[in-house]
Amino acid sequence: MELIGKLHGISRDMVTGQCLVTFAVNDSARVVEQSAELRDKELNIKATKYHKPRSLDANAYHWALCHKIAHALQTDAKSIHYELMISYGTPLENPDGSKAVISVLKVVNPRRAGVYARKIGSGSVEGKEFDHYLLIKPSHLYDSKEMAQLLDGTVYEAQASGIETIPPERLKRMMEALEEHERRTQKKHENKSM
After folding, report:
1. Is the pLDDT of residue 54 over 60?
2. Are 136 and 118 in contact (CB under 8 A)?
3. Distances from the Cα of 184 to the Cαs of 8, 59, 90, 92, 191, in angstroms?
4. InterPro entries, per this entry (predicted)?
5. Residue 93 DSSP one-character state
6. Are 136 and 89 in contact (CB under 8 A)?
7. Strands 117-125 and 128-135
8. In the beta sheet, which residues pair with residue 135?
9. Which of 6, 11, 104, 122 is most enclosed, with most CB atoms within 10 A?
């Protein structure tokens, strides 16, 4: 369990003579939920100075979770990333705002072509079988809102696989930092175009 908080106090247990260290943490519900599992067990405890995450940590965190999920499921991180993109990624839009859809012969696998595509149906034309796919925008083109949606899905899938994730407050700060980075970048571009 990794938490963010502040050192609250240090005291000594008069009966055992042990040093008692108390922390005030932000995610109290999570502590209560997991405390029974950790009580009276030997633990590794590490307290370090908090550093605000860098603005682009969201993508790195997504990939770190992809690797952890892959390890848990005994597969590779690229396959996990692909499946997360298909499930939680943002649909690609045409210039007119409509969703980009392709139809390919049933024997064609869009993934082998390096295309993120979510199957949405199938049909036949003149006796040939086709699958219809909604194209998914590559994640390097995501804005902060789209990245937040992908990361929420990644966190959900990690937790479903029994993988511990960062506290919601830290995830929120990570996404706020990404939004701020996005605003600064956009402002720079606007200033250059003037």
Report:
1. no
2. yes
3. 36, 18, 23, 25, 10
4. NinB_sf
5. B
6. yes
7. antiparallel
8. 117
9. 104
Neighbours of 88 (CB within 10 A): 17
- Residues facing residue 129 across a β-bridge: 124
Q: What is the pTM for the complete model shown?
A: 0.65
3-state SS, residue 138: coil
pLDDT tens digit sequence for 180-192: 888 887 777 677 6
pLDDT for 125-146, tens place per residue?
Answer: 999 999 999 999 999 888 889 9
Residue 35: closest CA among 27, 11, 157: 27
Phi, psi of 5 (to 5 degrees): -175, -160
Q: What are phi and psi of 36, to 5 degrees?
A: -60, -35
- For the chain, the domain total comes to 3
